[in-house]
Amino acid sequence: MSVSFLFLIAALRVLPEKAGTPEQVGPDAVFTPAADFVATLHAACDAKSGDAFGECFLAQMKKGGASPAALAFARRTGNQAYLKAFREAGNVDVALAVFPFRANENEVWLLVNGKPPTVDIGDVAPIQKLLDANSVYKSLKVDNPKISAFPRPTKDGPRVLPDKSGQRFAVAYDLKDCHACKAAGYALVAFNFDAAGNFLGPELGQVKPYYH
Questions:
Q1: Which residue range(s) make up the domain with 86?
Q2: Is residue 39 part of a domain?
Q3: What is the pTM of this model?
Q4: Which of 21, 33, 125, 181 is deepest in the core (most CB within 10 A)?
């Protein structure tokens, strides 16, 4: 059955970046730390805050062998994350960032190298606005009043969809009451960019309940 998309534009959160145009993210920015990196990071940086925390994070990455490109990527996340994986997809590429200090969802898929330079698909606020207007989602809320969207963990990240006029990336979100709760349904969202890499906004596709 074909998917009928409702085109709705919303402003997504972009990660904090320094003034000016950041460097393009590429495979040379991937950082593969030692197995004890996170433990060492916590031991060195937990007591610090603000700029001191960020500098500590960068210092530990550098000590762990991070390349200049890897450090540049960390800076564009506000010194909060490192790049675990990168996949070329065209003007806009796919990146997997690791946020070691987050309580939940430490691994976050990003769409990078477009305009804006970074789009975080883990920012569900604009997705939630699209869902609030959807009839299927409204029906799910009857039995699940606290239901909201959670990015579904995937090995390969956003899926590239055919698009002759630009780029489209498909992302699945589970609809559930909490991180550990069983999903009551799912939503498919397309992230759209024009031929020049300008972000056009998310587009809500299928919203379906799960029948347990």
A1: 6-31+66-209
A2: no
A3: 0.85
A4: 33
